[in-house]
Amino acid sequence: MASEDVVGKTKGETAVSTIVNLAEEAKLAREEIKGPSHAILSICKSLIAGGVAGGVSRTAVAPLERLKILLQVQNPHNIKYNGTVQGLKYIWRTEGFRGLFKGNGTNCARIIPNSAVKFFSYEEAARGILWLYRQQPGNVFLSPPEDASLTPLLRLGAGACAGIIAMSATYPMDMVRGRLTVQTERSPYQYRGMFHALSTVLREEGFRALYKGWLPSVIGVVPYVGLNFAVYESLKDWLIKSKPFGLVQDNELSVPTRLACGAAAGTVGQTVAYPLDVIRRRMQMVGWNNASSVITGDGRAKAPLEYTGMIDAFRKTVRYEGYGALYKGLVPNSVKVVPSIAIAFVTYETVKDVLGVEMRISE
């Protein structure tokens, strides 16, 4: 009888063990099935967070964005906009409230996918660069520890990669957005909207016209986006590690502190890259009769100035208007960039927290 009990007990234990093993195998199978879908969902949430961040931040500063472009391309022999306050008042007086946000719909249609791609590309580039960094062979200077984090220089590289990818993917929309933005009530309306502008430029000027100014844009985006991410992440990292002035609580930065980090990042990036932004915008206006940058060799305003390339655009701008022309619109742009970049970074991280995305920038 005791022998039967032992046999029964053994069989019971075997059955339980089999059930447990089957349950574990089923769990692993479910996780394998869940893995790809979970990763896709996480990617989608990250893209959504980046898109929301771009739309919110750009709409908040839309009037300053439009004034910046108007200052960049206006004819110096027919000055309408003398500064930030005067320019905003002039737009309000001549075009009303809607004039302050003209081109913002097109701008958001461009910046939302641009921002989504940019933030996601940065995270992927940062992860890839960090992995390569940890795999480096050689001496102690080339072999970082397994738990090494991104250095400011590596963050700059990841940000540069993200900026180039995002800029290239959405550049045609940026080009027509610039043209839509400089249209005023007093100029003949050549474009009725973003899609009409895209089709018109494609039909009348060809596919290459959609990428006018692309080279200075790409060159400019390397220091601009690269420095934005590098300064923002490095400042955050420094604050968390050093904990100065009691700004850090439980290794978390407050919203005002993160806004300040974003503002510093935006200021550094846009100051370095701004001349290239001016040249890009002027090259985008080439071939459009309603462009307002109309300087000719004798100094008279006749027809839109033609550029053969980025270097030629730099040379003619400096020759006819001086080096100061490379910084036209810098003041409203500075006022715009400080809150815009700050809002974008904080919105991105906040939306990701709300959506429950585990992945954070540079982690």
TrEMBL record:
GO annotations of cellular component type: mitochondrial inner membrane
Pfam (any one): Mito_carr
Keywords in alphabetical order: Membrane, Mitochondrion, Mitochondrion inner membrane, Repeat, Transmembrane, Transmembrane helix, Transport
Signal peptide as annotated in the record: none
Biological process according to GO: transmembrane transport
Matching InterPro entries: MCP, MCP_dom_sf, MCP_transmembrane
Record PANTHER family: SOLUTE CARRIER FAMILY 25 (PTHR24089)
Protein name: Mitochondrial carrier protein
Lineage start: Eukaryota, Viridiplantae, Streptophyta, Embryophyta, Tracheophyta
